[in-house]
Automatic annotation (TrEMBL), chain A:
Belongs to the palH/RIM21 family. It comes from Lachancea fermentati (Zygosaccharomyces fermentati). It is a multi-pass membrane protein. It comes from the Eukaryota. The chain crosses the membrane at residues 89-115, 173-194, 206-227, 247-272, 284-311. This is pH-response regulator protein palH/RIM21.
UniProtKB/TrEMBL annotation, chain B:
Keywords: Membrane, Transmembrane, Transmembrane helix. PANTHER family: PROTEIN DCV1-RELATED. It is a multi-pass membrane protein. Its main location: membrane. This is LAFE_0H01442g1_1. It comes from Lachancea fermentati (Zygosaccharomyces fermentati). GO terms for cellular component: cell division site; growing cell tip; plasma membrane. It is found in: Membrane. Residues 204-227 are annotated as: Disordered. Residues 212-226 have a biased composition (Polar residues).
Amino acid sequence: MTSWRYKLDSQLYGTCSGLDLGSGVLLWKDAQQPIAYFDSIKFRSYCDESRPVYSSFRKTENSFEYLDEIAADWAIFMSDKNENGQYKYSIYAITLSFTANFVITLFLTVIVFVAIRKKPYKGASNLLKLGSTLASVNLTIFVVKALKSLRDNHMDRGVVSTENVLRLLWNDLTFTSIDFIVVLICELCQVQIIMRLFSRVQEKRMIFFIGMLLSIISQILWAIPTFSQSVHYSYMGLQYDGEGLTLLSPFVYLFRISLAASYASIICSHIFTKRHLCFQDKHMIILTLVTCVIVLLQPGFFVADVANIWIDDLSEIFNTTCYVGSTVIVWEWVDHVLILERKMQAQSVLGRPIYEDEQQDYYFANYALRVQEAISSNEDDDAPESPVQTNFNYKKETVSNAQNNKVEFNEPQRMKDVVLEKCSNILDGMLYFTDHFIVKGLMIKTLSLHSRSSDDRKKSKTKVRRRIGLERPNEVYVYAMKDVVFDSDEEQENPNMETREDVESV
Amino acid sequence: MATFTSLLACVLVGIAVVFQIFSVISAPVVSTIALCTYNGNRFGVFGWCNIQAQQCTPIRVGYELDSYDYMILNDFLPSNAKMSVSKLLIVHPISLVFTFILWILTLIISFHRLGNSRKMLIGMVLWSLPAVLLSLLSFLVDILLFVPQLAWPGWLLLVSTILIAVASSIICVMRRTVSLRKYERLRNNENIEMYPIHLNKDSKLPGGASADQRSNPKESTVISSSHLEEPELSYRFEIDSRS
């Protein structure tokens, strides 16, 4: 549990330590001696975690009144100074919270499977589906376990304790492990969302590296105190440095809040910059408002948490829901915004903007060369080589000749060169990974307009095939060109003017 | 030379540095400045001062009480946090160092030709990220420890975070501008000429223009325009649609 937030519980209840009732007669169910007189009777009320337990069963006219001392303890327990006695800390509020979170997460998972398009971000959408499914499964397991724990408590002890549910939330290894994976997946999807918001390749790269790094660091830092505590709770024999980890927990907590606040500010700034798209119609206005609320929910919970410790108790469940919500809803919002943007670009004269980053890395030049290579490989061997191809071959030959002419010695490389080479290899590898699997693939895919349904896609495909003549590949057309002279008034002025016109096919 | 945007970034980060200095020099360094005043104590990053006794603790990381009186311990900080959490206040000087270095870098790009270096600007954007995060973290630590009694130096950290974030965005825009400018300059130096695609079939050179045309592109455009033919593809489409 987040012990760094709790002060020591100073309240001592008299009924839990024992009340001196003095002398008197006691009745009990012993058949031999149902009545006995005692000089000194000491009464200790039933307590749970050093707090008095009161009956929540149905009260009838025949029920006994509480003793004055017990009633006084109840008044203390319910007072404003006590942070555990108020209604919001009772089992009812906690049960309501975790079941509501469970339903919301389940609802979001259904949205992911129904509404989120698979293409063009196939990998990321699959990751999102995996994350939301895992979150739903995790909360289902938790709800079942919590209800079972409440039932057991009720049956065995006649108590419905909040402590057991909260302990389950913080110390259950299954919940903690799946939650770790869920949050990591959601954070990675959030990185993907931010990458989608930026158009330039270099910025995408930077966001990918930094986002990955921060997500992994945040999760590792979170895992250290959480798993230590869970393992210590599950296997009591293991050593546990509680004091040392006390400092790490609040740091990770604040670090996560910082990341969530940064994410929220990026999304909000994009909402502001693309406000003409976000507030275009009623549907988009609602989606944008929901997005705005959901990304601000986690920083908002921090403020509520600072003001009210109750949130902190359930922060893990709120966290899971917030992460899944701020990924799924925002993903949907980004999808809509990008579709609207692309539609607008398609309708405009200039089309999609091309940035110098793309030109600097010769993305289009490379693409053109590949097309050229593909075309030339299909051509006959007898056909004369294109100049571009010749140039290309010449370059290759030059390189190979240079390599052949080089005299090689078995000299050991300098340490500095080896380290530099290794570093540059690692960097190149990472860049290759980013460009090929993350950025470049997505870039090329996003060049085309999205279509909502498969029918639309089929229609557009047929249209394109018809346009480029793939529909009837066996039909051969022969064209002839001739100059046609029109008789007009201008002709008299300029009799030599000729105009070309196409002629019919054969 | 200094541009308006680089100067603006420099000024914003400079103000952020000043705001962060206020919190770092709070009690016990300067006893009158405090992040929070509560129960007769003025709290700062490196300790606290008692107002009545006019005594301050030695400068150290985290708060420590000499006497472990339960009542004092229970009512020492205005929030629910434990005393050990006060060690997190160390992020204040770390944040100041990061922001100060960022300020130095903004000064360099304002008054040095390094302001036109893309690598330098990318480095600055990357550096500004931990600066923003640490500044935000400092503010959150203050909130966690001292809310609802947080004083003005604590709130200045929020302003500082926003200022650094804005400066970071400005640097990012500068990087885009410099990148575009360099690209345009590079293209101008290469003097690449654009020729219509349909000239390819008549030309013998890879660029699609003859040697004469290459030597004098302006002339060549004029000459080649006289041999213009309409694209073949349009004929095909016309015929196809008719059939």
